[in-house]
TrEMBL record:
One Pfam assignment: FAD_binding_3
Domain of life: Bacteria
EC number in record: 1.14.13.113
Catalyzed reactions per annotation: urate + NADH + O2 + H(+) = 5-hydroxyisourate + NAD(+) + H2O
Family indicated by similarity: Belongs to the FAD-dependent urate hydroxylase family.
Domain FAD-binding: 2-347
Organism, as annotated: Microbacterium thalassium
GO molecular function list: FAD binding; FAD-dependent urate hydroxylase activity; urate oxidase activity
Official protein name in the record: FAD-dependent urate hydroxylase
Length: 397
């Protein structure tokens, strides 16, 4: 069977690897002209790492991952430690250690594992159609390709999603929803003045967050959340000025973090949007995957993991069902749509709590952190992992 995958991100490449290892002919197209991932890094919780292990990449992913042994919350204004605890229980309960990884490193690993010769960059799909069991993808340059199946992993503004949901024929279009905050992120060298090298360190106050997580090669992934309206003007030349303004007077470690950022090297500014959960992921021989199907705010760190779960479920569905391509894809949709939608809603709920949209709720959360042993936070992390399809019904031990 020939499969076209639209999108060479985490979801598209992992799906391509899974399908190719089942013996299918797979080709990937992406509109980007070179490998420039959006965002500096991502959280690979145990469910996401397990999918990569299943793809045969356990050693490589472990080498890319940071040693995130502890988690700590600190008061953003004073720098006082509110709580600090080990993340070992997450590993013990789920059977896999989580890793923060640099997005570019993981994406390049996946692209190279799939095969760079079969990833065609600079190819913008403009339309998809199906006739007599053949799916046709049409590209902006006028070229076409045909296959037995097409998987759209083409992101939050997915052309494939418009086809699957009927929006391409004039039906209702699924629109994104602003989450209420802007995220700044990037990579810097690890520095003890900012936080321990084996710890996810987060400063909180005023509904804002400033955090660092360790990734490979002696680096920190940093990110800041700033609640604000969407559409505010920002130029690359503004650099870190918005951070200096938003976090003025914060703790010394936060000031050290801001001082360490070189905007010319690594600083991204991203308004955070998501998509209301929906359950139409398949039309005939065409299916969607990743952000196309469940664009999620990063508040529970499950965006990339959810895309990897899609790839796992798709691979299992293709390997085990033989009635038809259409039947296989409906079974993939059945496995994934409800759980992925639940994670979108959990991320929204978490974002509401952390960003002071309800000031009393956020103040209560801050108070709950003081002196916490971390057990409640770990329950939340594991709760996002336990129902993953990769666990095959054994969520925790």
């Amino acid at each position: 069977m020939k499969v076209i995958v639209i999108g060479a991100g985490i979801g598209g490449t992992s799906a391509g690897i899974a399908l190719r290892r089942l013996g299918h002919e797979v080709v990937i197209y992406d509109r980007m002209r070179e490998n420039k991932p959006v965002g500096a890094a991502l959280s690979l919780w145990s469910n996401g790492v397990k999918v990569l292990n299943w793809l045969g990449l356990a050693d490589e992913v472990a080498a890319l991952g940071g040693d995130m042994a502890y988690m700590s919350y600190l008061d953003g204004h004073t720098g006082e430690t509110m709580c600090r605890f080990s993340l070992a229980p997450v590993t013990e309960m789920t059977g896999q250690k989580p890793y923060p990884v640099a997005r570019a490193d993981l994406q390049m690993l996946l692209m190279e594992t799939f095969g760079l010769d079969d990833i065609h960059l600079g190819m913008q799909m403009t339309a998809v159609s199906e006739s007599d069991g053949v799916v046709t993808a049409t590209f902006a340059d006028g070229s076409t390709d045909t296959a037995d199946m097409l998987i759209g992993a083409d992101g939050a503004r997915s052309i494939t999603r418009d086809y699957v949901t009927g929006a391409a024929e004039g039906g209702p279009k699924i629109e994104r929803t602003y989450s209420g905050y802007t995220n700044f992120n990037g990579l810097i060298a690890q520095d003890d003045a900012i936080g321990p090298a084996d710890q996810w360190t987060t400063h909180v106050a005023e509904g804002k967050r400033a955090a660092v997580m360790p990734v490979a090669d002696g680096r920190f992934y940093f990110w800041f959340d700033v609640p604000q309206p969407d559409g505010l003007p920002y130029e690359r030349s503004d650099g870190k000025a918005p951070l200096e303004a938003a976090f003025a007077g914060w703790a010394p470690a936060v000031q050290a973090l801001i001082d360490a950022i070189d905007p010319a090297v690594s600083l991204n500014r991203v308004e955070i949007w998501d998509i209301d959960p929906f359950h139409t992921w398949v039309r005939g021989r065409v299916a969607i995957l990743g952000d196309s199907a469940h664009n999620t705010a990063p508040d529970i760190g499950q965006g990339a993991c959810s895309a990897l779960e899609d790839s796992f479920a798709l691979g299992i569905a293709v390997a085990t069902n033989t009635v038809s391509v259409e039947d296989t894809l409906k079974r993939y949709e059945k496995i994934r749509a409800e759980r992925a939608g639940e994670l979108v809603e959990r991320a929204r709920k978490r974002g509401d709590e952390t960003h002071a949209y309800d000031a009393e709720a956020t103040a209560a959360w801050y108070e709950s952190l003081r002196g916490s042993d971390g057990s409640g936070i770990i329950r939340g992390i594991v709760g996002n992992i336990v129902d993953s399809p990769v666990n095959l019904g054994v969520g925790t031990l």
